[in-house]
Give the backbone structure.
Amino acid sequence: MQRRTIFFVSDQTGVTAETMGHSLLTQFDGVVFRQVTLPFISTADKAEEAVRRINATGETEGIRPVIFSTLVQEEMREIVKGANGLFLDFFAAFLNPLEEELNIKSSRTQGKAHGMLDIGAYTLRINATNFALANDDGAITRDYEQADLILVGVSRSGKTPTCLYMALQYGIFAANFPLADEEFESGKLSNTLMKHHRKLYGLTIASERLQQIRKERRPNTRYASPTQVEFEVRTAEALFRRFQIPYLDTTERSIEEIASRILDATGLERRLRP
Amino acid sequence: MQRRTIFFVSDQTGVTAETMGHSLLTQFDGVVFRQVTLPFISTADKAEEAVRRINATGETEGIRPVIFSTLVQEEMREIVKGANGLFLDFFAAFLNPLEEELNIKSSRTQGKAHGMLDIGAYTLRINATNFALANDDGAITRDYEQADLILVGVSRSGKTPTCLYMALQYGIFAANFPLADEEFESGKLSNTLMKHHRKLYGLTIASERLQQIRKERRPNTRYASPTQVEFEVRTAEALFRRFQIPYLDTTERSIEEIASRILDATGLERRLRP
């Protein structure tokens, strides 16, 4: 099997280079990629050190590496471009056509994307994250007025990570409420939930998968038994339908996809963008 | 001021398109961008609907929009390319050179990046997130054996969001422990912390900024008073130096940057990549 080392080189965090690289690399089955991030390459010294590292890797492995660059500053780009590897230059590919289209020169300064701090955005993310933490698992419900979204579903259907991801990625205030015996037995949702009916969004999951997750967590319990898991999933879905709560099956989905699908389905506005 | 609408079009979540778009757009000061994500464009019908929406926006605004595309499937790309806008095609720019370099055809299938579920990666993220939640704020310390990293710092120095981000983004098991009166008065760290000394990483923050954050949270308290805040920050930094704990000032940094700098400084391996 072919092996190849991939370098993500950035004058900032490298998150953009990693994200774009990941999207591309997943298109190639049958290649094993070793991924190395070289962030904060913001001086000529560091750029030269990066070149040495890339070249040494190529020599050791007998095949030149691939370099995903989001370097913005001309000087550093020119240096790293000189490394012995395939240089894929994010800014060269898109910045020039964008400059022409907007009829304006780009600032070409480093660190605009994830580096320089936008205090407003930072505070929003922190507040949204704190909101998700405080309103996790039905802990409190008095802040639902403030919530953008309230996820409901059985235990381990994916509510908590989805809320946290939406907070960190989009600044969305998401609470979550676990459906449990009280709801299953009464066939009802609490007044608090019904009052915020328009904010409710359901998560469900295949019984087999949920059982597997719960078994890892608490083996040999009622909580993880096939009968209980099936009962909970079936009853939760019946509640979603009865109360007309839109819902999504999380079984085959990544957290990114769950979050994107909820935003798409609800029309909820992102409060900030990654 | 120039205004322009940007569409992120993807057959999956649009996260890659948004991330790359954001990196580019931040290079243009003096333009107000309205950003619209059109995810899950996976059929010809949806692609044609996207084109109608893009064209209608262009007509209303009297200027053609910019389209960042991470569409993979040829058919959908051809349709959306026909819209009246600047079409920036992520895959066309990078997939072909990568195919040549690797001497292998890409699968060109949609949904590889954030769509199709890698159960192992999913479980890892969830477990890392649960670990961060369970080990937040010094709540428990018995799991430190399992931790990749233990962040220490005063209250509101950025520990919790950094731990959660590292869990969700990189699958890293990060705990955090708040420095408080006990440590300040004794000038020591607990045995549990010292036992895991190699995993410790400090976060600090400028007193003025910290005071502002705490004031918003609990106005008119000792917790938010300038004297107390200054004392805590100064004492925490002295502890970091005394016990040779590497540390980072989070004041002017985004969560992405804090996380990347910690990874870079510690050499900690990412357990997964976004």
